[in-house]
Design brief:
heterodimer, A: 62 residues, mainly alpha, B: 685 residues, Amino acid/polyamine transporter I, two-stranded antiparallel ribbon, 28 helices, 73% helix, globular
Chain lengths: 62, 685
């Protein structure tokens, strides 16, 4: 049962990661380790800033 | 030799034997039909062997990928774009970015030559050229802090090469957006079901955008799940709209009207904030795209449909009705993205390298995702070839070529040796929930019919109409994503160029400049779209070769940059790894461009077509509906001719620039200067 749960958990984590669902958590984690004490963007501002960055370059093909 | 090694060797020998047998079966089959599984098995074996041996050799010997070297993702980790990511996640991101409409449409059009030429080039081209290009560009960019192709070109070829690469990219994008928009318009024209479904996807995307911005910021998964369900409902609702007389009349639009809608949509979407329309639409289209690809693979394996298309058709001589031109070079120009795509170089540099956690991941991400992309192209080819050839030609050939009424059209196609009759086409259109399928050029409708046939038969019988419109919706949503995303990127490139003329124009946040640049880009592709729609020969036969040439030339530019890097970074003895595909691409595109410019055959040469039409117009030999648009078509043919001249000059300038730089380096006139970031040992465990 625990093996099944672990497998499900890793699939779920992969799905979140691949869709960018966990982008904010990863950003918070990154800041916690690399820049402790720095002011963090809130979830909404982070989402908007990320979108602007991502869509200012070629990220889709023909 | 130890036992595991022996077993591994035996497995690879078995894969090689099975692959060779499947390949031989396909190539030598001269019977009535051949099972599609042969294609799946042959393709899978070829990609596996290419991946295991060729990419392995490139990784170990040519590039000497170093797992101890810290990648830009690790060194410059900022928790956002630079972020070490597990390789299977990077693979997913990269594949989602490179998978587009091109590998679905190209093989569908190229099926006019028969199944064999397309299959061979998709496999050989991907393994030896396309996957290699993606992997090498990804490597070069990863070793250089994730620089973009334009920056790499500036460093390796100088400012002139960089400007040429950038200008080339902009024009390629404009042609790309025009041809993809044309595909959508052709699929939606006079189809209330398709049109209403595709229109419904816009408010759905807006809704998801608002949800992700205000209600649950950044919760991509749940928002996408809601959106996908709504989109499936939109497909079903389209059938209801189609039945309702009033609503049917609203959405039963002609091509030109839909073209104006698409142009207006492109402009608005490029100006609106990204979170409102562009990003949510992309989430939805990516999900649906990956789902459909996965579903198609399963359905083909379950159903194992028979291929009806012959191995070769008579059209290899260049008289093809869907696009003109002989097998060489136009097969390669038409298939384009499924075998090698220049556009991938833009994603492989700049975006993906910033996620690569370990240098050795370059192999799986670069080579592997392109192999998968090529596999998608093989499936599209299968979907086109399971149709009766007569039906395939009736759907894909424009009314200007075979005649507008069903009896003439089917008689012409039957006379080519591909029997089809009006009753069969009528029944097919009815089962797909359409009034007519004749002359639906662009590849999307015939692919949708093929997919509906495969899905409908594999997953329980019937529901062909739902599957057909689901397939149309699926193609339309990610084509529209390319339109808004492409217009936006085109706008940035345009602003960058305009900024050199007058600095304020280069400020991307200054609205007048942003709007003006967006308008210029939209007018660019909108013009080609409009001409394509009013062209009685379907437009695709002009635009797709232009797009294919442009795409392959961009690949040549990318490979020229890589070859220059190889020569300057002490990999001269392996320069043929990028050099041979480069030489091939330059040859193919030059021959194709040459024929498009200088051919006297009005079906092939742009200028010849313009002359031919001008003469007929002067002699009064054109039917009235064609005479009405003749002056626009003549101008367009000449413009296309000059555009081809421009592309040819760009690509040769870059190649000569590259050769000159390599010569100077090899003759010692210019000292070697490494453009790689210095080695730093990785801290990742």
């Amino acid at each position: 049962m625990s093996a099944f749960r672990a497998a499900w958990w890793s699939i779920w984590a992969g799905l979140r990661s691949i869709t960018g669902d966990d982008a904010y958590e990863r950003y918070v984690e990154h800041c916690r380790i690399r820049h402790p004490g720095a002011t963090l963007l809130d979830r909404g501002s982070f989402y908007r800033a990320e979108l602007d960055r991502r869509w200012s370059q070629v990220n889709r093909c023909c | 030799m130890s036992t595991p090694r022996l077993i591994r060797g035996a497995i690879w020998i078995a894969i090689a034997v099975v692959g060779a047998a499947a390949f031989g079966g396909i190539a030598l089959n001269r019977g009535e039909s051949i099972n599609a599984m042969w294609f799946v098995v042959a393709a899978a074996s070829v990609y596996l062997i290419g991946y295991r041996f060729y990419s392995g050799w490139i990784a170990a010997r040519v590039l000497k990928l170093d797992p101890t070297r810290a990648t830009p993702a690790e060194r410059l980790d900022n928790g956002r774009d630079f972020m070490p990511t597990h390789r299977s996640i990077v693979f997913g991101h990269h594949f989602a970015a490179i998978a587009g409409a091109g590998p679905l449409i190209g093989p569908t059009l190229a099926a006019q030559f028969g199944y064999l030429p397309g299959t061979l080039w998709l496999l050989v081209g991907a393994v030896l050229a396309g996957c290699v290009q993606d992997m090498l560009v990804l490597f070069c960019s990863t070793r250089r802090d994730g620089k973009s192709l334009a920056q790499l070109a500036r460093d390796e070829l100088g400012p002139f090469g960089a400007s040429a690469a950038m200008l080339g990219t902009l024009f390629i994008m404009i042609i790309l957006m025009a041809v993809l928009a044309l595909v959508v318009v052709k699929a939606m024209a006079h189809s209330a079901w398709s049109t209403s479904t595709v229109f419904a996807t816009i408010p759905i995307a807006l809704l998801i955008g608002v949800y992700l911005r205000f209600f649950r910021p950044g919760r991509v998964l749940e928002a996408t799940a809601i959106g996908v369900v709504l989109m499936l409902l939109a497909v079903a609702a389209g059938g209801w709209v189609d039945q309702n007389a009033t609503l049917h009349a609203w959405f039963d639009l002609d091509g030109v009207t839909i073209a104006w809608f698409v142009i207006g949509y492109g402009l608005i979407a490029a100006i609106l904030p990204v979170w409102l329309l562009l990003a949510p639409r992309d989430y939805l289209s990516t999900f649906i795209k990956l789902g459909v690809v996965f579903l198609l693979a399963i359905a083909i394996c379950v159903l194992q449909p028979d291929i009806r298309m012959p191995a070769l058709t008579r059209f290899i001589d260049g008289t093809g009705p869907i696009f003109s031109g002989a097998l060489f070079p136009f097969l390669f120009i038409t298939l384009a993205c499924g075998a090698i795509s220049g556009f991938h170089a833009l994603v492989s540099s700049g975006t993906t390298p910033k996620l690569i956690a370990r240098e050795t991941d370059v192999r799986m991400v670069g080579y592997g995702s392109m192999a998968l992309e090529s596999f998608v192209a093989i499936m599209a080819l299968i979907a086109a070839c399971v149709l009766d050839p007569g039906v395939y030609f009736a759907i894909n050939t424009a009314a200007g070529v075979v005649g507008a009424d069903p009896v003439t059209a089917t008689a012409t196609i039957t006379a080519w040796g591909f029997p089809v009759d009006p009753a069969q086409m009528q029944e097919l259109a009815r089962s797909m929930g359409e009034t007519t399928l004749y002359g639906r050029t662009g590849g999307a409708p015939s692919l949708a019919v093929g997919m509906a046939h495969i899905f409908g038969s594999a997953f329980g019988d019937g529901l062909f109409a739902i599957w057909y419109h689901f397939a149309i919706m699926f193609e339309a949503v990610f084509i529209l994503t390319v339109l808004d995303a492409g217009t936006r990127v085109g706008r940035f490139i345009m602003q960058d160029a305009l900024g050199a003329v007058w600095a304020p124009l280069g400020r991307t946040s200054w609205y007048p400049s942003a709007w003006a640049a967006s308008l210029l880009v939209v007018l660019g592709w909108g013009y080609f779209l409009y001409i394509g729609v009013i062209d009685p020969n379907g437009g695709i036969n002009i635009l797709w070769p232009l797009f294919g040439m442009a795409n392959q030339m961009l690949a040549a530019i990318a490979l020229a940059v890589v070859t220059a890097i190889f020569v300057k970074s002490g990999r001269l003895r392996y320069a043929c790894v990028p050099g041979l595909p480069l030489a091939w691409l330059v040859t193919v595109t030059t021959v194709a461009a040459w024929q498009k410019i200088f051919s006297d055959d009005a079906r092939i040469g742009f200028f010849a077509a313009a002359r031919d039409m001008a003469e007929k117009l002067a002699a009064g030999a054109l039917p009235p509906e064609r005479a009405a648009v003749a002056s626009k078509l003549i101008f367009n043919q000449q413009l296309d001719g000059w555009l081809t001249v421009f592309f040819l000059i760009v690509v040769w300038t870059i190649v000569i620039d590259m050769l000159r730089g390599c010569y100077q380096h090899l003759s010692g006139r210019r000292p070697a200067r490494s453009t790689e970031s210095p080695y730093v040992a990785t801290q990742l465990t």
